[in-house]
Amino acid sequence: MSTSLSTSGYTSGRPPIADAGPQALCAREPRVPAERLVAEMVPPPRFDSVRFDTYNPDPTQPSQSEAVTVLSGFAAGLGGAHASGAGKRRWFSKKPAAPSGPRGVYLDGGYGVGKTHLLASLWHATPAEPALKAFGTFVELTNLVGALGFQQTVQTLGGHRLLCIDEFELDDPGDTVLVSSLLSRLVEQGVALAATSNTLPGKLGEGRFAAADFLREIQGLSAHFRPLRIDGQDYRHRGLPEAPAPFSDEQVAKAAYATDGASLDDFPGLLEHLARVHPSRYGALTDGITVVCLTDVGPVPDQSTALRLVVLADRLYDREIPVLASGVPFDRLFSEEMLNGGYRKKYFRAISRLTALARDAKPLVSQ
């Protein structure tokens, strides 16, 4: 990140300006071609460099080492021709027979045991060019269907060798049925699958293991998945510093003007803008942004707005874009009713990720 944090000459007036001053996300209306949506279905920058040999299994948890061994073998088995008999789409040929035996793996484990690290490592290890394998969250996959339509999505992904789905969301029955139908069509065309998921709300041991829920919710697809349990503790809760308190409006604006590539928006205005931008474009909304600066952060007013904010938080976290904010702390974004409702896992994930990005942004404020 290129920054200029000098504050010399700054008084109560206009702060020093970086190369071009802060941008406004609210002024952006990205248009994303379908080809880009598909091309961007790769592990996010945070997981660019992860591999099986960079995963550090806990010696007290044998299932972690076993997972690496099993997934390495699974990746190797995906080499060669596409399971349908060819590496390219079969536009006019007879529908291939469904492959025998499990053509999918489901990584079953609690928070912070490295499921996404392993899923991204599987993508990297699979011997196929990037255009023949896809990686995305459940939300990104549903957004792709929304942008392309169901049939076009089947045609687009049907020639792939591997589709990885991170955080398969079991708390949305409608989207679960939609994606299950899509995966059934892709399995028929020989696409191998790998997935992680959240747990259903209200389940005993929520946040731990979800294989039974996952296999039940995807129903007819369950025979295509081998559950792979990964035990362990949440590495993200080990020794992390406390989240910084929000800064003042003046501090946020000052840092925005002093940081190349920063954006600066008031939070209520940004929430309104997100309602006018399709969630599939939230990644493009942040193109070229080095830090997101927000003033007047407050509780989100309704569930639709909250769910859009969750998607934006995911895209910022994937791209490792710090968030500097004034107003209320991020753990007060969502009401008690939301945090106790059916989408609470999404909201807790957003709080966790925004808090991590706030820690990343703290050095941008001169003390």
Give the overall shape: globular
Q: In angstroms, what is the radius of gyration?
A: 22 Å
Number of strand segments: 8
- On the 0 to 100 scale, the average pLDDT is 84
Head-to-tail CA distance between termini: 20 Å
SSE pattern, N- to C-terminal: HHEHEHHEHEHEHEHHEHEHH
Number of helices: 13
β-strand percent reads 5-15%
- SS-based structural class? alpha/beta
Main β-sheet description? 5 strands, parallel
Q: Indicate the percent of residues in helices.
A: 25-40%
Q: Which spans have pLDDT < 50 for at least 5 consecutive residues?
A: 1-15, 83-100
* Strand numbers in spatial order across the main sheet: 2-3-4-1-5
Furnish the topology, listing elements before pairings.
Blueprint: H1 34-39, H2 62-76, E1 104-109, H3 115-125, E2 133-137, H4 138-148, H5 150-157, E3 162-168, H6 173-188, E4 192-197, H7 211-217, E5 225-230, H8 249-258, E6 262-266, H9 267-274, H10 282-285, E7 291-297, H11 303-318, E8 323-327, H12 336-339, H13 344-361
Parallel strand pairs: 1-4, 1-5, 2-3, 3-4, 6-7, 7-8
Helix pairs in contact: 2-3, 4-5, 11-13
